[in-house]
Design a protein that fits this description.
The protein is mostly beta strands and about 325 residues long. It is built from one helix and 25 strands. Helix content is about 0%, strand content about 40%.
């Protein structure tokens, strides 16, 4: 959600319901669903975000939350969707919830208040790593939440720093995250770091180019992290020039490279559990101001648009399995 949302909320308007042209379906688009987020135009509730689910094989989509809250999913696993919501509290006071892929069995998982940030799950331990807050002074710190009982354990304790968008390595031993100073410092940007599961051995992985035009403008320096499940690299969003793209970085920081193949803004993304598919949101143009979801075959790079124009803001896709 975060910064990109505010840039397009100012330009929302009514759109047509015409079907967007698509390329051929990538071969073998498998037995999975994609959860994602939309902004719902509502004359009563001005800040209404809903969680949707889409079947890439049929093109059918469904609103799962149907609630006048801010609901936003950052993560899905197997047939569970994890999302933040302010439904039981004040506007944008977020807590962690889960639901089934059909929208049933909505359940609050923890009393820890969360920041608006990426998160990740270690299925072996049933622990989730999140960015949370304990008080107005203790914010943007990393925590582990035990999903069995909702109890949390704090991993970081530097209140001068924002720790956001944490993600586990596939073996659960390492956590990558975005670290940035709360007070802006010249030539110091949000960067990707890694640490061990207990918060030790912190190491910087990225270094944003100071001479890039985006260094002085609006956009992502680093954010929206995912860890590829089979090829052992971290994908993330960063803005270079005037375009936000998906990049990759090795876990030791030795190499960074661009993953996005277009010159369109592509930020929020997810990898299928087998690593064979990449899905991401893509800003089409400044005329339509349309955000679509795209599905790409990681091996062939063949891709297609999944969504129609019924909703203009369609963001942050996450893979989950069909029930």
């Amino acid at each position: 959600m975060k910064r990109i949302i505010f840039s397009f909320l100012t330009c929302l308007c009514l759109t047509s319901c015409q079907k967007t042209e698509e390329s051929s379906n990538p071969k073998g688009a498998g037995p999975f669903l994609i959860a994602y987020n939309i902004f719902k135009r509502d004359s009563v509730n001005k800040d209404d975000w809903e969680v949707m689910v889409l079947d890439p094989e049929t093109g059918e989509s469904k609103n799962l939350t149907n609630h006048p809250d801010v609901a936003w999913t950052y993560l899905a696993h197997e047939n569970k969707i994890y999302f933040i919501s302010d439904r039981d509290t004040a506007n944008r006071n977020f807590f962690l919830y889960e639901m089934n892929s059909d929208g049933s069995n909505v359940k609050k998982l923890s009393a820890l208040r969360l920041e608006d940030s990426w998160m990740d799950l270690d299925p072996e331990t049933n622990e989730m790593v999140v960015s949370g807050r304990l008080s107005p002074e203790i914010r943007y710190q990393l925590f582990l939440i035990n999903l069995k009982d909702g109890k949390h354990r704090q991993l970081t304790s530097d209140t001068s720093i924002r720790f956001q968008d944490p993600v586990f390595s596939p073996d659960g031993k390492i956590i990558a995250f975005v670290k940035s100073p709360k007070q802006k410092i010249e030539s110091v940007f949000p960067e990707i770091y890694r640490m061990d599961r207990n918060g030790g051995e912190m190491k910087q992985l990225t270094k944003f180019p100071v001479d890039d035009p985006a260094a002085k403008g609006y956009g992502y320096n680093a954010g929206a992290l995912r860890w590829h499940p089979t090829e052992n690299f971290i994908s993330y969003a960063t803005t270079r020039g005037s375009v936000s793209s998906i990049f990759g970085v090795n876990p030791d920081g030795s190499k960074t490279w661009k993953i996005s193949l277009t010159d369109k803004d592509e930020v929020y993304h997810d990898w299928s559990p087998d690593g064979k598919w990449l899905t991401f949101d893509q800003y089409q143009d400044t005329v339509s101001k349309q955000y679509h979801l795209v599905l790409m075959n990681w091996e062939t790079k063949e891709s297609r648009i999944l969504t129609d124009t019924l909703h203009r803001t369609q963001l942050a896709p996450a893979f989950l399995m069909k029930q």
